[in-house]
Amino acid sequence: MKAIRIYLLGFLFIQGFCFSQNIDSLESIYSKYYETALLANSPEGRYVVLNHSNTYGKDDFELFDVKMDKGTKLEKHLKFQFLTGNLLLMQNDDHCRILNLKTGQHHQEDGRYIFTIAKKSEQLILYSSSTKELLSMDYDGKILWKQNDIGSYQFDDKNDRLIYNSGKQLSVRNLKTQQVKTFNHQNDVQWLSYSEKKIYCAEIKATKIELCTVNLMSDQLTRMTINSPQGFEFTANLNSYLEIREDSHLLLPLFAKSKLSDKKDPELQISYSNRNDHEKTLNHHMGIYNLKEEKWDYQPDAKQKLPVYRFLNDKGDFIVFDQSNDVVEEQQNVVLDLNLTLDYGKSSYLLPKKRINDGNYLWDRSTEQFIYFDDKRWMCHHLTDREDHELLPLDIEGWENPNNNGLTYSPEVNPIKIKGRSAIMLSNQFDYFLIDLKDHQVKRMTKGQDQQTRYRLQLSKDHYPRSSWNVKFPEIDLGKEMLFKLFNTTTYDTGFATYLYKKNKINFYRHGHYKDILPYKNGSLLISYFALEPFKLTIVEKGQYRIVYESMKTEKKDFGNAKYKLFQYKTRYGTANAALLYPSDYNEQQKYPMIVNIYDQKSHDLLLFIQPFLTTTFGFNYMHYLMNGYIILLPDLQYETGKIKDSIITSLEKSIDTARSIASVDEKNVGVLGLSFGGYETGLALTNSNYFKTGVAGVMVSDLVSLSLSYSEFDSMPNYRRTENQQIRMRDMLFENWNGYLENSPIYHMKNISIPVLVWTGSKDRNVNPFQSKMFFLGMKRLQKKAVFLEYLNETHNILLPSNQLDLNVKTWQWFDHYLKNRTPAEWIRPITQ
């Protein structure tokens, strides 16, 4: 097989590689490689459902018996979930099927359903939004109950009951006994909710809400009319924001009538330099209605144009701020005045000039402390004495998120609340610390920094509040076992650790590149994959590790001598990582061309296994090049705020120098490639370094001046946010550092280019304006330098049409083969060589 592969690859290059000539031969080779994913596992760990897929149409499903070391093919389904150790639920667009793994028999319910599993009563709840049919069936497939014309429903898993509305009738069904209570109301229902003792439903009109409440203790139904506050209207479009708290307070989204009644000329849009552009959008306010006293406890302020509300707990304490005060819109984590409002509106306190991102603050009601993140430190504000002080010892560093040189001004990890205590967990870039908010005692819970190992607490959706209004802070119970994911920032070894706080006991799982851990009754399943290492499944029981499944055991032999090496290099900016990948035919006695693929922390590409294929959305698959005689370098580049060009070139060249000392690199045939921010970096490399023979820049940024003073449709915010505080990292605005913007723009250094360049873009790119790439090409053309410009007329920031993906991947390959391997140029390259 290897000889055939070499012959075919050689044949494809004879007299130039044409797009339409023999491409099928290469793709037939690549089509045998695939990626494996685990979709579901049984509670006892015996069975797993696997999917094997690739870009060439392979999409196979397998039931693997871990105990018997046996796989069975499954029909394709969209979703798999085990109901018990031997019952597998499979769902498609047109049916739900329960498969008995012991007998091989199945029961199928035809129809397009949303399903919910009621574990306590061992039932499956199915609902069809198209037919309005709601039903429940047991795990054996027997239908226990069915009803049509169901407008809405809720499943109360705690009490194992189903609440649903049909016409003018509200029903509550006990799933265990199938007993049902029905209540007649007089209105249409757009919203349905429940608490422990009550059921709520509402008809929502612009000026009033008709609310019906069922008291489950007395079976009494009451009705209430709530009129909208003056100047505001209700809306049913935001019913996920309607919420009952403590059976007494109804949270309501509202629209300002002035916004609803605005008449705008469709041919004209007016913007003002002293207004936030988002003021033009329809933004919802919040009101809080007291159901017991039948009055408004909190009414929105009509003067606020873009109010944001964030509940800090379940007791009625929330933050309000007005984003319209951010008239410049230069940051994504802007400093604004926050109003801390307590007890659903009974009192409020002004907290001036705080960062607004959810992770930057929290409130502890018991100790009346407002915790916030400022200038890379965690601070504490006491509401009683209005004093601020440092929350943590000064000798603990690394609290800030290092992305974009820390210019997001946000913490590395959001705070974690502790259930039942005035305490929180905070994390720096390695470890977690428990802080008691009563006495401010600090306890270090993990010890990762000493081994350069990053700990990250694994959280599920159950740890987060369900409310649409709440800040999404997780809450954990210290009495339960915690699970941490481990990542060594030097070696990239990965694993897990379980931790019991009360016993101070920790167990490690780190014998491989473990990406996921799936605990079951008597052990755990560990999933691993890495660069050049396909999917592997390991079972751990009683401290013993056993590999039970390996994907592509035969096919991966074709990778031959391909290998990777992770190394560190040093510059005046510090130490950084880089990954070096060797070709499958590597022989240290030979010299190989090298492609340097750049984009921020590119070495992290090692953390994934990818199959070789020629339809990536950005034109480059390093596995394809490894199998075709190239060395690949993936460096983590270094950045100095405001001087990104110098730091990029210094770190890029140093990483290449180090790679040359490690592997047999042909120093005369080194290319560089990047897209988006990597395209910007590639532009800087091509214009400021003589290390490269050619380069490929995709959807690039070439001019920081025009970029800064433009918009991106992608997030509809001014691009000076991107140049100042995001990846470009200029920090200062254009008008404070004009020369710096010119110095760090590739286009103003184009006279330095002496090598051919391939530039590509999608003409409908909504992220980076295609004109950025066109400017670079036009500069090359005006200077009479060699460049080819590929413009895909109906593509965006990534190439999505398969035929265009193939075209870009092949053209990129042909380009590098011509300039780095001296291959005969493809027909489309020939004009630039003449």
From TrEMBL:
Residue ranges of coiled coil: none
Segments forming domain Peptidase S9 prolyl oligopeptidase catalytic: 656-822
Top-level taxon of origin: Bacteria
Keywords, in A-Z order: Hydrolase
Family annotation (InterPro entries): AB_hydrolase_fold (IPR029058), Peptidase_S9_cat (IPR001375)
Name of protein: Prolyl oligopeptidase family protein
